[in-house]
Structures are given as structure tokens and as C-alpha cells.
Amino acid sequence: MGLKQVVSICFTILTLAEKHGCQNARFDNVDYTKLDLMSPNVAVASMDNGVPLITGDTLAKEVSRNDILLIMCYVPWDPKYQAKIKNFETVAKLVLANTEDAMLAKLDMAAEPVAARAVEVQPPELQFILYFRGAAYNVDEFPNAKALAAMVKKLSQKNFEVPQLPYGEIPIKNLSKPDFDKVTNHKEFSLVIFYLPGSSAGERLLYSFELGIHKIKKDKRFGYYKFDATDKPDTLQRFGITKLPALKMFRKGKVFDYRGPKVNPEGITQYLTWHAREPYTEMSHPDDLEKFLKEHGERATVVGFFASKTLSKFQDFVDVAQDYRDEHNFILMPTPMVSQKGSTDEPVQAPGWTLAVILPKRWRTPDDEKKAVLHQEDASYEMIKDFVRWKTTPLAGERTFENAKSLYSLRPLVVAYAKIDWSKTGKKDTEYYRDKVAHAAKDHKDTLFAICNSDNFTQEMERFGFNLDPKYDIHVGILGKDGEYYPRWDTAHMSSKMISEFVNQYKAGEVKPFFRSKSKQQDDPNVLELSSDTFNSKILHSDSHALVLFYHPLSRNWWTAEQSLRALAKDPEFRRRDVIFAQIDASNNDLPSDISLSTYPSIALIPKDNKDNMINYPGELFEEHMVRHFLFEELGKLHKSKPKTEL
After folding, report:
1. How far is CA 1 from CA 8, 101, 133, in A?
2. How far is residue 548's CA from residue 162's CA, in Å, rounded to a whole number?
3. What are the structural domains of the chain?
4. pLDDT band for position 261 (50/70/90)?
5. CB-CB contact of 375 with 310 (8 Å)
6. Which residues contact 134 (CB under 8 A, 6 or more apart)?
7. Helix, strand, or coil here: 306?
8. Which of the four pLDDT bands, split at 50, 70 and 90, describes residue 37?
């Protein structure tokens, strides 16, 4: 049986399951061994729950052996991975059992760093990489198993070919360093992709953008370029680029971040077409504005009234509009006609400029301004930007996954979690919660407030330590400027006054951050078992060097790291050199925000004389001799760096 037939059966199973109302759990009782399908009995190196695992040793083999190889690149503690893995495994098992030239496999980026480096993916972000007849492509996340099966079915068509550009077409041109400023300053709009030639990640990104840009109508005012970043650290530093490949947009030389799609060519086409246009919509009559507000009432609208585009502040308006066009509507209108005092002459256009911000009706509470106005001839660009940022944000707007990193990236941020439901049955309760938070926010104009749908932010609520008992209809906490989580104790029917008082207490330094803290029983006298509560006292406030293992029980190779740590802890040489050894379970303990780890396990040396300078073990393998070499080397450096008076 061919792959096409196998996936058709898979697709039918998924469709029938969905038709009968089954959701994610619909595959739990499927006995794949009893499906009427022929099994080629394919041999694979290693499996996890019936799905092949990609390793550094098997990657090249599986790429060459399979016409279709779809790899889920993940870390096992990632909630997004945990939400998708069951559906992925369902389709993967069906494909594996019934075809010899296709495979859905998993790559644990933490446990298989060699393979992750070869594929050019980095933890902790969940990613999907498709190898089709040996060539690598980025793939969008699938919403459910049916969508995944549909994609595999499409790939399995006999005459399927990946989309290619017309022969000879080059939608993305090379941009050299000497020409960089000349080109980006001249073009009204340009996109630059910074990449390294030969990089798989760079080539995958370029492919998606080539297909997307190919569909954009040609216009000499716009340009799309790729920049070879090899040995050009000064250029990367100039634009704040720390990771490649990277994207930046330019308007007459001014740089802006690219925040659009990076995989789907259609999404790329739409995003770049939208951004190549002016960041505002031009109107001339108040009736046009009124109609626009009725049709686009879900977002805040910024209206710039300008007597002329030659005014110096007009370019500031355009730049601010470009910064926030993904979040808000921007309208350009002429200043109104006014009669001259004491004159019978025809009305004339008012001079100067004015900005007005109109909040969407849904988020306009009794405590919000219906319209905010800025009219100050000498206003600076930063003043205009701050005005737009603050006035477009309601006293209690809704924070979502989509706007959390843009509109609600300021800290501190007061967040209230409640059931958000704008349907007819839930609208009244939602407005009640919104108004309650807004009433508290009006007393704290220097602090940003937001409400969040508690159904969508359960992990963040757990990080705050909230009691999720339904009797608590609203939970309030503060995402601190220091990166920590400051919860207000749960109270049934919390009032606006309670919320406001809690914010005052935070500002006065009277609220302590919350850390989940739980240590397991110490079973090795040479290795401390730490919790969040004891990390400070036993490590940061100790008079010794500390070698600490940060681990997660779901990590496949943390046990190797632990055995190495225990072996080193027995060495009397390290006791003589004043080193203590410890480990902490990151699944049960929250670490201080200044300790940032992208993967587990991680090992770090914390020097006794400089606790803020944590030295991370750079190795990918945790064999004892490797960690030993690292520890000896770093202790030697610390000894040499001491002032002579201390030697």
C-alpha cells in the first residue's frame, strides 16, 4: 500500500472522529495494530512512544532514506509541545507502520544537541522542519491531527512538487555592505534578510520569503534584499542583531522590527504589502472617519490632523504610525476649516497639527477618556510616541498572546485574570470585571493594567501561585520590573479598592515575589538538594564557590549530568578548593529572573566573590571528565584574577 492510500485512510479516520464530536482524546482507544493496513516492518534506531527519535547519528540516514521526513523539534517540558504531541504521534504511527519512504519523527533539542545543531534549530521554541527529497523547509504549526494528516496527504500526491520560482526570477537581491545605507536610505520601503550563506536556517527562511515576495506587485519604490552577514559584526551590532537569520524593515533609512509571519508565503505577502504602503489611511471628510470607526472598532484609532505634510512633526507621526501600525489604526486628515475672528472672509484651514486617540467602544469604560488630544507644537518624537502608546491602551484592555510582547510589554504590569467572554451571555460579566479593574487603574496613571482570559493563561496563573478554586472569580498580580511575579492573595469578590491598595503596597516595596519552592530529600551527603527558598541562603549568600545543576525531570539526559556532579562532589580536591555542589529541580522551583536558561540540564559555576557572574558550562555532553575539565579551568581563572594581596 502506498503512502497516498495510507494517509487517505488516516485522513478519513480523523474526519469521522471529528464528525462524531471527538476532540484531542479521540485517538486514545485506537488499536493501530488491528487496522487493515500492510506493515513494511521498517527498522528504526530508537523510538519514543512509537515515534522515531532523530539523533546526530540517524539524521543524515533518515533524510536520505525518506522522500518525506517531517521532524517535530521540541523540548519535553514545553507546554506547546505537550499540547500537540498526542495528535502528532497519532499520524506518525499510521505513516510509520505503512510506508517505507515517509516518516514523522521527533527531535529532542535538549537531549540531541548535535542533531539540533545540524538541523539549525534552537531550544526552547517548538519548530517543524520538513525534508522533502533531501531539501529542508520550515513548516507552520498544525492546529490539529486532521490538519497534519491533510498536509502529509498533499505531500504524498504522485505529482507533487514544492513550489518554485519562475526560471530566472530573483525577487530578493544581494545587498553589499558598501551599498547598504545608499539603498535603504533611497527606497521608500525595504526589507533586509541578514543571513549566513550555506546556513540551513537561512536558506529555509529565504525560500519562504522568495515565494512570498514573488507575489508582490513590482514597484521601484520598494526593495527586498539579503545581506551576507559573514564577518560583519559591526553591522549586526548596529542593528541590534544577536541571532541569525534576522529580518529588518526600513523606510527611507529608518529601521523597524519585522513582526510578521516567517513561514507561510501567503502571510508574508500580505504583511509586506501592508507594510510597504504608507502606515496611515488618508481621509478628507469627517463622515469618512465616522464610517471607518464603525467598521474598524476593534482597535484604537489615532487621527493626525495636519495643515501640511511639510510640517516637521508630520514625519514623527509617520514614524510612530509605522511602529504601531500592527496594533492600531492610523488616519491622516487635514486640519479643519475655521473662520477668522472678526472677519467675513471665507473660512481658512487651521494651521499646525493635532493628534487625537479614539478608543474602541468595547474597551471604553466610564473611567476612560473617550478621546485624548495632543496639541503641542514643540512636542518631541518621544513625546508623541509616549502619547500614542499610553492613550491607545485602555485603563483595562485585554492582554492576549498576540499583543503581550507589544502593547503589554511594559513593566510593571498589573494583570487581572477572569473569565473573558464577549458573547451575549458572557458580555455583562466581562464588562463587570473590566470596569472593576479600570476603576482601580484610574488612580495609577503611571502604571499599565490589563485583564486576561483565565482560560488562556493558566500556566502564568500557576506561576503566580494563585488558588484556581472557582470561588475566586478574579485573580490579580503584578509582573514586576525586575521580572518577578508579585501576587495579591486570593479574595472572593475582590473590589477595585482592594486592587488599588495592592498596587500601592507594591510601589512601596511591601509585596514579596512568589517562587514555587519544593526540594526532594537529599540522598547524597555531598550534593545539596536546593529549593527556591534555599537557593539564596545556601548558594548566593554562601562563602564558597558553587557548582549547580539545574535540571528538569522530563529531560532525557539529566541523569548523566547528575552522576557526573555526584562523582565530582566526592573529590577531596574540590572540597580543598572550597567548592560546594548542589542541584535544583526546575519543574518544582522558580528561579530568580536574572537566571535565564534555555534548556535543561544546565550546569553553572557561581564564584564565591562574584555571585552575579554565573559561569555556564558550555558543553553539550555532561560526561564527568568534561565537566571536571570545565571546573578546573574556571577555578584556575578565578584564582589568577584575584588581587595579589589576596593570594
Report:
1. 11, 12, 20
2. 48
3. 3-155 (3.40.30.10), 173-276 (3.40.30.10), 281-391 (3.40.30.10), 397-507 (3.40.30.10), 527-646 (3.40.30.10)
4. very high
5. no
6. 63, 64
7. strand
8. very low
Rounded Cα–Cα distance for residues 402 and 386 (Å)? 21
- 453 membership: H or E segment, kind and range: strand 448-453
- Alpha-carbon distances, residue 29 vs 19, 25, 39, 338 (angstroms): 17, 9, 20, 75
Largest Cα separation within the chain, whole Å, is 99
Question: How many Å apart are CA 439 and CA 367, to the nearest integer?
Answer: 6
* Size (the chain), residues: 647
What span, in angstroms and rounded, lies between the C-alpha atoms of 46 and 519? 33
66 Cβ contact list (under 8 Å, min separation 6): 101, 102, 103, 131
- Each residue's pLDDT tens digit, 427-483: 999 999 999 999 999 999 999 999 999 999 999 999 999 988 888 999 999 999 999
- Residue 423 cell numbers, joined: 458573547
Interval 175-196 mean pLDDT: 97
Report yes or no: 513 and 485 within 8 Å, Cβ to Cβ. Answer: yes
* CA geometry: angle 425, 431, 434, nearest 5 deg: 140
- The DSSP bridge partners found for residue 616 are 604
Cis peptide bond N-terminal to 124, omega within 30: yes
